[in-house]
Amino acid sequence: MSIVVQKYGGTSVGTPEKIKKVAARVTAAKAAGHDVVVVVSAMGDTTDDLIALLNQITESPDAREYDMLLSTGEQVSAALLTMAIHSLGFKATSLTGWQAGVHTEDIPSKARITHIKLDRIQKELGEGKIVVVTGFQGIDSHGDITTIGRGGSDTSAVVIAAALKADVCEIYTDVDGVYTADPRIVKDARKIKTISYDEMLELASLGAQVLHPRSVECAKNYGLVIHLRSSFSNEEGTYIKEGTGMEKTDVVNGVALDLNIAKVGILKIPDKPGIAAKLFKTLGDAKINVDMIIQSIHSSGNFADMAFTVNKTEMKKAVEVTNKVARELSAEGVVSDGDVAKISIVGVGMISKPGVAGDMFEALGKNGINIEMISTSEIKISCVIKAEQGKKAMEILHKEFNLGK
Q: 308 — alpha (psi -120 to 50), left (phi > 0) or beta?
């Protein structure tokens, strides 16, 4: 019997009425003869509400208790969905991450899944039950509940699907697929039928919020097909899979905008070996993820300026850490800017087509958009610009590369 793994996001289970509709879709898959495992997120804004409640108690929560609190959101939606399935006459059981055998690193809040013990899931499936699993969470080597980062239910679903050797992991959300740009910003954005893992990973990492980047990375590692589709319709969505047979547009397949970044700079640091290592190792030790990095040389040749980007929520902490390093290196100072955005173009066609960067920079320049930082790879080009120009830049680049056709 084939195994179907479905994941439903917070908007898909946001109300009792929506949960009942999800139950109908899940039981339809069971009635069609499949074994069904469902992974659910917390209802609607539950996680944000729990964090707001926490902030009324303390500004410095214990990491273990933080995960204990946030894990309750998924348990609510899992139990409610299971009871909705029961009401339709089907057998089902809900499992927490640890009951489902999801094991993680010993790192609160941002743990990675290390392995899954399938015994309990397979037992319940063997008894003819639909299995509903709480996403976003697992258990560490000490037996403590851990969470795997915002959006982590996508990753939970993909890893469980891979472990069960499912043919596809269906991820249901409030959008009906991956688009060439954010359709809320670009009116003629077009849904992409099929996209490669590499392109989807870049888009997800660069601000397209339809899928968590770690889920795409896991799917690529296991060769698992993801079908991203709407929980509010029966239309096909976007298939994320290996690049062969991928839909071709032009050189560029999508434009992404990330408004949740900040820029930090350290001025006049000694230009000698080991300096960059000291700065970024210190940031890494503080669990701060750094994205784009640029270095410029002063005319004297003895000093350099260095700038990098981080998640906006980590800007304050990054500045504190960088100031500490700056004092140790006798640097001139540290500057920061939270009013920036990252605009990116993505496409495997860029590998074999020269001049794409020039076309991008020219399109931005002639429309009065100044580029502050640049980062490139084989299949993407990213620029840091002022935040207020982000949406305009997305529209310009979508048109420049004919993505709406």
A: beta
Q: Give the distance from CA 214 to its chain's centroid.
A: 6
DSSP state of 264: E
Is-contact 178 200, C-beta < 8 A? Answer: yes
**Residue 56 buriedness (CB in 10 A; 0-12 / 13-18 / 19+):** exposed
Give ∠ CA 352-353-355 in degrees, rounded to 5: 145
Per-residue pLDDT tens digits for 41-72: 999 999 999 999 999 999 889 999 999 999 99
Which CATH superfamily, name and number, covers 3-174? Acetylglutamate kinase-like (3.40.1160.10)
> The tokens 């795409």 sit on which residue?
216
State the Cα–Cα distance between residues 19 and 34, nearest whole angstrom. 20
DSSP 148: B
Spatial CA neighbour of 266 closest among 278, 249, 250, 253: 278
Q: What pLDDT shows up at residue 250?
A: 61
Task: Write the CA distances from 184 to 21, 180, 209, 215, 391, integer angstroms.
Answer: 25, 12, 13, 24, 10
pTM (two decimals): 0.85
The burial of 358, by beta-carbon neighbours within 10 Å (0-12 exposed, 13-18 middle, 19 or more buried), is given as exposed
Distance separating alpha carbons of residues 304 and 99, to the nearest angstrom: 53
Torsion, Cα 250 252 256 261, to 10 degrees, reads -170
In contact, 195 and 346? CB cutoff 8 Å: no
Domains 3-174 and 255-400 share a fold: no
Domain boundaries, given as residue ranges, for the chain: 3-174, 255-400
In this predicted structure, the answer to whether residue 212 has a pLDDT above a threshold of 80 is yes
* Other Cβ atoms closer than 10 A to 145: 23
For the chain, state the CA radius of gyration. 23
Eight-class DSSP state of 348:
G
Residue 322 · residue 279 · CB < 8 Å: yes
CATH topology of domain 255-400: VC0802-like (3.30.2130)
